Automatic annotation (TrEMBL):
This is DUF1684 domain-containing protein. InterPro entries: DUF1684. Pfam families: DUF1684. It comes from the Bacteria.
Length: 272
């Protein structure tokens, strides 16, 4: 251990503030208010203007200019007046259609398309008071070793939405010791570099979200060594809202011990 507990707490506190500010973003995960799966038959939905349908070519939206739907674009916004087709990519953030302060996100998940509404006035956002966490402790900062695969391996995992699957690429395994035992977790590549470890442990479904939590690491050193800081384990969006489509952990990523570190199950004002 190269840092003292006060140093660890200060670094964690700054990180945690940024984490909560990201959650509080006007159109962040706490703003979700609806999720609708689309079919080839054009359909309307409560509170959402226009008709929406899914085709092999993408999502078709038909609306009048008076409906106030505007497609967000890197070039310039486009008001929908007639019929447009949007092309969301599986597993990535969706195409965005604005309506006033709200945003309708058009997403693709495997071969299915859906729309979900992001509204800054969602109770999950307006009543958000922070994410409960376990106390920060030096014992959760672990020395670990990354053992890369020769080539990424395809991994199929279930999702919180029944019948939906996510197709991921595992890049290797991370080994570490906890409670005197060696444990191994399959690792995915992090979106901004480093590694992402999605796992369940003995707290899952008790003091933490049953669908598991995620910890991200920096890039391993050349010899594979890395630091695993379990104080920074976080919930996936599905812990905060019923309208996310999060993956579940890979089948073997279950720790038989209780990781009483990082984020606990969040409060759910939408279920109060």
């Amino acid at each position: 251990m190269t840092s003292t507990l006060p140093d660890l707490v200060r670094g964690w506190s700054s990180w945690h503030r940024e984490r909560e500010e990201e959650l509080r973003a006007p159109h962040g995960w706490l703003s979700l208010t609806a999720l609708h799966w689309l079919t080839p038959e054009p359909a309307g939905f409560d509170g959402i203007p226009g008709l929406w349908s899914a085709t092999p070519d993408g999502v078709v939206v038909t609306a009048a200019a008076a409906d106030g739907l505007v497609v967000r674009s890197v070039r310039e916004p486009r008001r929908i007046d007639g019929t447009v087709t949007l092309h969301p990519v599986d597993g990535l953030p969706g195409s965005l259609v604005e309506r006033g302060d709200a945003v309708i996100e058009v997403v693709r998940r495997t071969d299915s398309h859906a729309i979900r509404v992001r509204d800054p006035e969602a109770i999950t956002r307006t009543a958000f008071t922070g994410v409960p966490t376990f106390p920060v402790d030096e014992c959760w900062v672990l020395d670990a070793r990354f053992e890369p695969y020769a080539d990424p391996r395809p991994v199929t995992v279930d999702a919180v939405v029944e019948g939906l699957h996510h197709y991921l690429a595992a890049v290797g395994e991370v080994r570490f010791e906890l409670y005197g035992q060696e444990h191994v977790l399959v690792a995915m590549a992090g979106k901004a570099g480093g590694l992402s470890l999605h796992f369940r442990d003995a707290t899952s479904g008790d003091s933490t979200y049953p669908g598991g939590r995620v910890v991200r690491t920096d890039n391993p050193a050349a010899d594979g060594t890395l630091t695993l800081d379990l104080n920074r384990v976080v919930n996936l969006p599905c812990a905060f809202t019923d309208f996310a489509t999060c993956p579940l952990p890979p089948a073997g990523n279950v720790l038989p011990v209780a990781v009483e570190a990082g984020e606990r199950s969040p409060l759910r004002p939408d279920r109060a």
